[in-house]
Every structure is written in structure tokens, then in C-alpha cells.
Amino acid sequence: MPEEKIKTRNLKAVPKLDAPKLDDEVIECPKCFGTGMEIVSGKGARICGCRKLRSQSGQFESVRLPKRYDGFHFNSYNAETDSQKAAFKLAQNLTHEYPAVSRGLLLMGTVGVGKTHLAVSILKGLTERGFRCLFYDFASLLKEIQDSYNPNTHASEFGVLAPVLKADVLVLDELGGSKPTDWVRDTMAHVINTRYNDKKLTIFTTNYTDERRTERDEVLEDRIGTRLRSRLYEMCKTVVIDGKDYRKNFDRSLSAKG
Fold it and tell me: Dihedral (C-alpha) 103, 79, 116, 169: value to the nearest 10 degrees?
């Protein structure tokens, strides 16, 4: 009898391939081998059924997009300047061509020029195609990691970081927005270097550029450090966006209604 119990404990359940998991134990699909695209003889490539299944099973809810971005998509992006039009085209191309892309995007520019709008549009487009995507405001991510050290919370640092490190595509919004302490830089380095080594696509947005217009201006390198800025050159295509702050239109529309 004891021997029979030992054998029972050693048995492992074999997951069904027609119901892939959405967590860290994702089974590699025999049709697309994890790429999301399957080759059909005589017809070419198409989105694999495993990706469609993930999308239908509520994967979009796990992207963690704030409610305020519900209306953000490519069809609602208003590109006025040449740089906005160029950024829009790059974002659309990435969405259509992924996973056959090797670099993400680093969207730079002042507030209100549509950086986050484009980043969210990419995530929505890729999620609709069945890829596992995740959105985080960088300050919020740091706060969740800090809270994981609190014994009164049920989170853990590993629990917070695991989805960030393993997502097919990650958007880190407002990079450089938090005070650049040693801990902040170490955390950034861990996230960025892990995704770099695992060849995971990452989209960054930041209000800091590489151009120091006055002596008092801070550039992105000041906020994240020389080494990480260098790494981002390799990970992402830098896209500088200029334009008017679209949020200023809110006051004008309210005045017109009044």
C-alpha cells in the first residue's frame, strides 16, 4: 500500500493542448511553436488558433489598462505634426508585423503629444491578435513592488514582477518619472535587462528626451543612468514626438459648452 501511494503522487496530469493556460505554465503550441503564427500549406501564414483561444478566454482583462484609456486606439489617434504621423505609422507597422520584429519603441516627447495613446493602441491591437500583453505606469509598478515588502499585504516581489518579466509585450509608461534613487535604478535595470536577455518586446514612453535645451533641463540619461540608456538604444527604436498638448483642448471644449 505505501508503494502504491508513492506512485500516485508521482503521476502528473497532462494538460490539454486545446486549452492553453495563460500563466507561466503555457504549453508550446505544436502548430506555431509559441510564435502566434502558423504556416498553412499553400496559403501562407495566419494567426494561430491558440492565440485566438487566449483572446476569447478573457486575456484582454489581464492587460491592466486604466479605464481612462478605454477610448484609446489607432482609429482615435489624431496625428497633426509630421513626427506624430511618423510615430503612428511605426506603431501600426509594429502591431501588424509582430512577432517578426526585434526592437520595441521608445516614445519620447513632452506631455500631451500622444505617446501613451500610441503605446496603448499597440497593446490593444496585439491583445486582439491573441498575444499576452501588459501595461504598467512605472511609478505604479515601483509602488506595488514596495508594497510587496509589507508583511500585511498578500503580494510578493516575485508575484508582482513575474507577469512584467514574462509578458510577450510590455508597455512601461512614464519611464524616468520617479526620483532616480539607487533602488529605482536597480529595479529598472532588473526589469529591462531581464526582458532584453529573454528577447521580450518592450514599449517605453517618457517625457524626457536626449536633448538638453538648457543647463537646468534633465535628459533621460540623468533619470535612468548611462548604462540603461545605452541598453535602450539596442532594445528600442527611439521616436521623438512633438506637437501641442491635446489636454489643453479640454478647457476649450468646456468653455464652448458653457
Answer: -30
